[in-house]
Structure formats: structure tokens, C-alpha cells
Amino acid sequence: MAERVNGILKDEFYLDQTFTDVDHAKKVAKNAINLYNQIRLHLSLDYKTPNMVYKLSA
């Protein structure tokens, strides 16, 4: 599963690019994680975000 998520992050959020410095890489990664968990709808979650599913289960 982690390999699949890692591939999605690289492909969809351009995390396979060369970064100018560590701060730039951290900002891009943080943005990608936010998009993945709070904005991007997932087919496997019945078109919900992971954040929505988490809140519904709490």
C-alpha cells in the first residue's frame, strides 16, 4: 500500500522533481499530503477524502 501511495504522490503531485533545497522539498511534500488527504477524492473511499472518512469514523 505504501508503494502505491508513494507512486501516486510522485506522479500526481510532481514529487519526483529536483528541489532547490530542503525547505522547498518540505513545502512541496506538505502541500501534496494536504491535497491527498483533504482535497483529492478517492474511488476506493467512495469518492470521499481520507480526512472525511476519518471524521466519519471518529
What do these coordinates show?
By secondary structure, the chain is mainly alpha-helical. It is 66% helix and 0% strand. The longest helix has 18 residues, at 22-39. It is elongated, with a radius of gyration of 13 Å.
Q: Give the C-alpha Rg.
A: 13 Å
What structural class do helix, strand and pairing data support? mainly alpha
User: How would you classify the quaternary structure?
Assistant: single chain
Assess the beta-strand content as a share of residues. Answer: under 5%
Poorly predicted sequence stretches spanning 5 or more consecutive residues:
none
Secondary-structure element order, as H and E? HHH
- Quickly count the helices: 3
Question: What layout of secondary structure does this protein have?
Answer:
Blueprint: H1 2-13, H2 22-39, H3 50-57
Structural key phrases:
58 residues; mainly alpha; elongated
Task: Please summarize what this structure is.
The chain is an all-alpha fold. It has helices at residues 2-13, 22-39, 50-57. The radius of gyration is 13 Å and the shape is elongated.
